[in-house]
Design brief:
Blueprint: H1 10-16, H2 20-26, H3 35-42, H4 47-54, H5 58-73, H6 83-88, E1 90-96, H7 98-119, E2 123-129, H8 135-141, E3 153-157, H9 169-173, E4 203-215, H10 216-219, E5 240-242, H11 247-272, E6 273-276, H12 279-282, E7 295-299, H13 300-303, E8 312-315, E9 321-330, H14 335-345, H15 348-357, E10 377-378, H16 382-386, H17 390-405
Parallel strand pairs: 1-2, 1-3, 5-6, 5-7, 9-10
Antiparallel strand pairs: 3-9, 4-7, 4-8, 4-9
Helix pairs in contact: 1-3, 7-15, 11-17
């Protein structure tokens, strides 16, 4: 089915398919956030023209739009169902990493049917692709003051919403959530870092690691970059591609760079930026005739898409792949009913889907994570997280980064 074409006005797309608003906003079209601006801007410009202005690949962006549309049209049980069912059932929302969303959703749908059949527990769930962004969740909870009105379980990568005092952070402080995953010792590959929340609020099921993909042809006589400090050197200015549109991972990168290198490090990272590309574009960047990055920063999963004989070489940073945790937040009040759901997400089966299908290392100690031996990770650390206003720090780092790039991370 053709939902749109190159000449479809932006406003027509968002009017017919409201779930696409988040896709536009998360990919740099801030004008599409409000109804007034959608009417003014969105009615005046078609999709092809808009993407040319932003230098965004049409095929890539249209696939994101179709994914959002088909997700909203699918037969997933959602939180929009009748009030009686919502009152009796468990409400579960979140984002699943794109490479593993389909197998995770298939397994969860089967699990949901069994738990309803065997235990009589209804599961109302909306688990969208990470490319959708968290805006749709934020819109539903931003004015919520009563914890009873929150979904019962959240799952998503990143730091954005979970630490925002105007969103989930205030409820965490009130002791609303509890980690009952039952995993006391995380997978051995994380022995050198302390990932488990010492305060017992945030559960975690895996991580998304960011690594380098280096174009050897473009590298020339420069030394191969091996650390995060290397890509901030003058010789890499405007020669690095960053996943700016992947807010979960990009914000994790900003936070870690700021922790280690301060404001100046974030400025240098901004100066290094050539452009923002989706990882699937990055692995093909060697074929471009102009604007070829030397280094691209991407989730480890996408380095496996590099074709044989390519000039692209994956480099795991010696000071650690920066990680964006996949968090699980469960409401303490309904923990007895939720526990089977928590056990599902913390299970070896889900861990293997993450680790084997998506190369997202699982914290489950029984999972064989498919990452190179002795691959270090760079992690913010709970002491740093709990002593900082993470939401404010993200805004601060974004402002500094944008001051060097003219607003790339807006």
């Amino acid at each position: 089915m053709e939902y749109f074409n190159k000449k479809t006005k932006l406003a027509d797309i968002t009017e017919r398919y409201p779930d696409t608003i988040a896709v536009f906003v998360n990919n740099g079209f801030s004008q599409m956030e409000s109804l007034e601006q959608r009417e003014r801007f969105g009615r005046a410009i078609d999709l092809e023209t808009a993407l040319v202005m932003k230098k965004i690949d049409y095929e890539l962006f249209s696939s994101k739009l179709r994914e959002a549309i088909e997700s909203s049209l699918s037969s997933d049980v959602t939180l929009s169902e009748n009030a009686e069912k919502k009152e009796k059932g468990l409400n579960i929302v979140g984002l699943l990493p794109c490479p593993v969303r389909v197998p995770l959703l298939e397994n969860f749908t089967e699990f949901a049917g069994s738990i309803t059949r065997d235990l009589g527990i209804e599961l109302n769930y909306e688990l969208k692709a990470a490319s959708m962004g968290l805006q749709w969740v934020e819109e539903n909870i931003k004015d919520t003051e009563n914890a009873d009105d929150l979904p019962d379980l959240f799952i998503s990568a990143g730091f954005d919403m979970f630490f925002d005092e105007k969103m989930i952070g205030k409820f965490k402080k009130a002791g609303v959530f509890s980690d009952t995953t039952g995993i006391d010792r995380f997978n051995r590959i994380f022995d050198d870092i302390k990932l488990k929340d010492p305060q017992g609020h945030y559960g975690m099921i895996g991580v998304v690691p960011a690594v380098f993909l280096v174009n050897r042809d473009e590298l020339g006589e420069r030394d191969m970059p091996k650390t995060w400090a290397d890509i901030m050197k003058p010789e890499f200015e405007k020669r690095v591609s960053l996943p700016v549109g992947d807010f979960d991972l990009f914000n994790g990168i900003l936070l870690n760079i700021h922790k280690v290198y301060g404001d100046e490090g974030v400025k240098k990272l901004g100066r290094s930026l050539l452009e923002s590309m989706h990882p699937s574009q990055m692995v093909k960047s060697e074929r471009r005739s102009v604007s070829r990055p030397i280094v691209t920063i991407m989730p480890y999963f996408f380095t496996k898409m590099v074709r044989e004989g390519s000039s692209m070489e994956a480099v795991w940073p010696e000071d650690g792949a920066i990680i964006s945790p996949i968090f699980l937040l469960s409401k303490k009040r309904r923990i007895d009913e939720l526990q089977p759901v928590i056990d599902f997400f913390a299970s070896r089966k889900v861990g293997e889907i993450l680790a084997h299908n998506g190369l997202f290392p699982s914290v489950n100690p029984e999972v064989e994570n498919r990452v190179p031996e002795k691959s270090p990770f760079m992690w913010l650390g709970w002491d740093y997280i709990y002593s900082s206003d993470i939401s404010q720090l993200i805004r601060h780092c974004t402002d500094i980064f944008n001051s060097e790039t003219g607003g790339a991370a807006q």
